[in-house]
Amino acid sequence: MAADDNNKPLRKIAEAFKSLSNSINKDDDTNNTTSETLDSCTMELAPFSNACSLVSPLFRCLGIAFRFAEMDYVAKVDDLVEASKSISTLQAMMDGDIESNCVRKGGSHTRNLLRVKRGLDMVRVLFEQIIATDENSLKSPASTAYAQVFAPHHNWAIRKAVAAGMYALPTKAQLLMKLNEDVQRFRRGLRCRYILAHLLQ
Questions:
Q1: What is the pLDDT of residue 150?
Q2: Which residues contact 30 (CB under 8 A, 6 or more apart)?
Q3: Which letter, b or e, does each residue of 18-37 get, where b requires 16 or more Cβ atoms within 10 Å of its Cβ?
Q4: CA–CA gap between residue 196 and residue 194 (Å, rounded)
Q5: Where are any strands of DSSP class E within the chain?
Q6: Higher pLDDT, 109 or 134
Q7: What is the pLDDT of the chain when averaged over all its residues?
Q8: Which is it for the CA torsion 44, 7, 181, 150, positive or negative?
Q9: For residue 60, what are the CA distances in angstroms to 32, 66, 109, 151?
Q10: Which of 6, 86, 149, 194 could form a disulfide with 122 if both were Cys (CB 3.0 to 4.6 A apart)?
Q11: Confidence class of residue 194 from pLDDT cuts 50, 70 and 90?
Q12: Rounded to an integer, what distance in angstroms lies between the CA atom of residue 1 and that of residue 11?
């Protein structure tokens, strides 16, 4: 990664998840097994959790509308980072929770992994929507991402609070400025680099 990429969160995220994708594809070629199996069986927890931690600043840049998501996401990723110090793979982590009969228990590693996945899904949908439109407002992309990913799991009060917070979202230009990206370079380069990084797909 180039030196000037160090202050560009989107590019760091793209590279981290592309590296994860490449490692899965390499194992796929070596072991001749399906990608669905590899996603859960061979992905190492440490690089996965470290890649997830790079996404946290994106929630922060979205402001109050996604403050709840930032706090929840950061806490869950921190748990996975801590778990990675003693657990090698995602599959081993989930197997441990199954053996302890705590998969569905709040605070379990597997339950936290699910919440992290939702956060990654929200970011993926958000940036797909941003890329798909020329509008400077983030209200429609953010609303779509929230409706698809988080809304089905939230009660009425939370959905109403998020809807109110949408009016305080930064513009696309403001968001990209916070992320040290400009609109044109984002559309030319990150369209492929970010989406094709296979963010948890």
A1: 93
A2: none
A3: bebbebbeebeeeeeeeeee
A4: 6
A5: none
A6: 109
A7: 82
A8: positive
A9: 40, 8, 23, 19
A10: 149
A11: low
A12: 9
